[in-house]
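Much of what follows relies on a compact textual record of a protein's fold. Think of the row as the fold of the chain written in a discrete alphabet. An example makes this concrete, so a full record is given next.


***
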Amino acid sequence: MAGAIASRMSFSSLKRKQPKTFTVRIATMDAEMEFSCEVKWKGKDLFDLVCRTLGLRETWFFGLQYTIKDTVAWLKMDKKVLDHDVPTEEPKTFHFLAKFYPENAEEELVQEITQHLFFLQVKKQILDEKIFCPPEASVLLASYAVQAKYGDYDPNVHKRGFLAQEELLPKRVINLYQMTPEMWEERITAWYAEHRGRARDEAEMEYLKIAQDLEMYGVNYFAIRNKKGTELLLGVDALGLHIYDPDNRLTPKISFPWNEIRNISYSDKEFTIKPLDKKIDVFKFNSSKLRVNKLILQLCIGNHDLFMRRRKADSLEVQQMKAQAREEKARKQMERQCLAREKQMREEAERTRDELERRLMQLKEEATMANEALMRSEETADLLAEKAQITEEEAKLLAQKAAEAEQEMQRIKATAIRTEEEKRLMEQKVLEAEMLALKMAEESERRAKEADQLKQDLQEARESERRAKQKLLEITSKSSYTQSMNSSTTALSTDLPSFNLISESLSFDFKDTDMKRLSMEIEKEKVEYMEKSKHLQEQLNELKTEIEALKLKERETALDILHNENSSRGNSKHNTIKKVS
């Protein structure tokens, strides 16, 4: 009985100790996840769980976003999840999104999962027109998005209309030109075909490298008022703080780079920016809500920390991640090369097999033709032999008749009548008999010549028959050789070599010579990048010129007009910020 009481007590104590939980739904750019969280969990506990689930190590770019009364907010790491102003109903929904953007995606984004999440988020922002993108750049970005999704272009697979259901261009761009979906697809496919050989991660990185030069990329905009009550926009991004006219989100009126800001603070709804140069006036503005000021300060602190971090040596964790990324990239490159070689060998084997099959069919046709020629030669030889025999018999018969005529002439001469009339008649008959004998002799000679000619034709026919049989034997021997070659080729195509790659054999030991070589490689890459950028700009200008005639000027938005003015002046995102800083 005591044991039963003890077991009941232990069960009840376990029941009391079981923690209370609540359900959370996390939405990423391409998936949704649900977790059961303890009530005591802080924002960092939930955030770390999501990052572990995704296999993400570059956590400093991301955050969990939710909405409070039409205002965006981010989950604080040091605050309990339930202490945030989130809806009471479950599951509680958060969006796992990039909170801070890199200055240079290629240098800063190490993991493939990080690149992929940024690619999906930036692509959606461009399609939703939260980032302004000019038409020609939209087409180029769409071609890289297609490469990332479909792989290499294959005209036999990617036929006309294969992009009909894809959302690849902003609606603003589509409405701006008198172009059918087929015309847009043709231009996207033309560039898509040039990206052959790029893996998904490479295509997505090229997309980000182009997108990061767009004026609105990575900028968080907030409506503010200055001391005079003028409505303005505050932009916060990886480079600093920017002040915009509400009607022009592309070109800032003034910029404060992070390295030129001494202090940022707010008091209630008033926000203060103190420049590093004390000679420059302090900039103050008011936002609509205190919550907005908190969010602005949060974004400022995060972006400033990353700005300073980029200008320092990489931490040990980042160095390890980059080393692993290099190893993984090298391994994938070797795998792609092996697959490419194997594919090439298979294609060559298939081409050889097709060529041998074609040659075999040709030899079979030649053999059939030779058999038919042989049969015709045999038939001709039989006919000539039969005709020669008939001619020979006719010649014998003519010779016999000629002999009979000669005998008849001799008999007529012997028994000739003495009278003149009889003599004349006799001479006439003799003359006729001589003429008949002469004709019979000529006919006999002609028949003999014809018989000789037929014998010669018979010999030639038999010689042709002998040559046809010999050629048939040669073709038969070639066919057997071709079959053996075909079987060996099939064996080659099925027994292709396989390669095992051991990533543990890769190591990195940088010495002075390695650093010099690395510096040379970096310089070479810079030159190649400049040449590529020049070529890319030429392509963009060519497409812009091509579709300019189809543009509907009356449908241009204010941002289109501003972008065209900036382009005509030669202004880009970076040199504009330098000018207004």
Q: What stands out?
A: Residues 174 and 180 are 9 Å apart (CA to CA). The first helix runs from residue 2 to 17. The mean pLDDT is 82.
